[in-house]
Write a structure and sequence with these properties.
Blueprint (H helix, E strand, L loop, with lengths): L9 E6 L4 E6 L2 E12 L2 E9 L8 H15 L3 E4 L2 H9 L9 H4 L5
Parallel strand pairs: 4-5
Antiparallel strand pairs: 1-2, 2-3, 3-4
C-alpha cells in the first residue's frame, strides 16, 4: 500500500514455509510474528520481532492486526502466548473472540 510521494509502503504477508506473518516497509523485512499450528483451526502465536530501526512507528500493531484478521477470515482461533499479541488483543477486545472461550481466562481476556 502506498499513499503518495514520500510515503512508506507497508506490506504484510504470510510466509507459510516459515510459519510466520511478515511485515515489510518499502520492500525491506521490518518484522514478523511466528505461529505454530496446534490444530488445523488453532494457531499459537508465540513470538513477535520488529527491527529496532523501525520501532515506534506502529508496524508491530499493523502486523498483528493483519495476522489475526487473516486467520480469523479462515476460521482459525488464536492462542496469544506472545506478549505482544496478547497486549494487542487486550487493546482490541472486539477481537478477543478469536481466543477459544476455555483459554480466555488464562490470557486475561
Amino acid at each position: 500500500m502506498t499513499d503518495g510521494p514520500g510515503t512508506e509502503s507497508i506490506l504484510v504477508a504470510e510466509n507459510l514455509a516459515a510459519h510466520r506473518f511478515e511485515i515489510s516497509s518499502d520492500g525491506r523485512l521490518a518484522g514478523f510474528t511466528r505461529y505454530s499450528a496446534v490444530a488445523p483451526d488453532l494457531y499459537e502465536f508465540f513470538h513477535t520481532e520488529i527491527d529496532p530501526s523501525v520501532e515506534g512507528r506502529g508496524l508491530g500493531t499493523q502486523l498483528i492486526s493483519a495476522a489475526v484478521d487473516s486467520v480469523a477470515a479462515r476460521g482459525i482461533s488464536v492462542l496469544p502466548t506472545c506478549p505482544f499479541v496478547r497486549a494487542y488483543l487486550h487493546k482490541h477486545p472486539e477481537k478477543a473472540g478469536l481466543v477459544p472461550l476455555a483459554d480466555r481466562r488464562r490470557f486475561g481476556l
